[in-house]
Amino acid sequence: MPRLLIVHHTPSPYCQAMFEAVLSGATDPQIEGVEVVRRPALSVSPTDMLAADGYLLGSPANLGYVSGALKHAFDVCYYPILDATRGRPFGLYLHGNEGTEGAERAVDTITTGLGWVKAADYVVVSAKPGKAELEACWELGATVAAQLMGA
C-alpha cells in the first residue's frame, strides 16, 4: 500500500488548522489504498522518509524561512534519502504573517536537490486561515494522496 508522509511543525492554532485540513483531504474516504502517516518535523527519521511514496510538508514561515524544525528534518534526512526518493511527489503548506518567499525558495531548493516532484501548487496563508484557505489545504492533501492511489 502506498504511504503518504505528512511532515509538519504546528506551533500555532493557525498551523494546526491548516494541518487538520490537509490531513482531512489526504484521508478522504474516496481516496482508497493510501496509508497516511504523520510525523512532527523534529521526530521524523530517514527511515520514515524512505518508507513513504509521497510527502506533504507543513511549516510556519519564521522570519521569511521555513521553521527550524522542518529544516532539522531535512538536515537529518537529506543524505540518507538522497538517491532513493527521486521522483516522489510532494506538496507544501506554509503559514506566515509576512514574507514567505524565502521559505518557499528553501523548500524548492531542497526538494530540487532530492529530485522530488511538486504535485500541486503550494498553499501559503497569511493571518488567520479562512474557509477558502482551509479548503485549499484540504485540496492539497487530497491531491497528493490521490496521486499515490494505485501506485
UniProtKB/TrEMBL annotation:
InterPro entries: Flavoprotein-like_sf (IPR029039), FMN_Rdtase-like_dom (IPR005025). It comes from the Bacteria. Residues 48-126 form the NADPH-dependent FMN reductase-like domain. Pfam families: FMN_red. SUPFAM superfamilies: Flavoproteins (SSF52218). This is Flavodoxin. Gene3D superfamilies: 3.40.50.360. One of its GO terms (molecular function) is oxidoreductase activity. Coiled coil: none annotated.
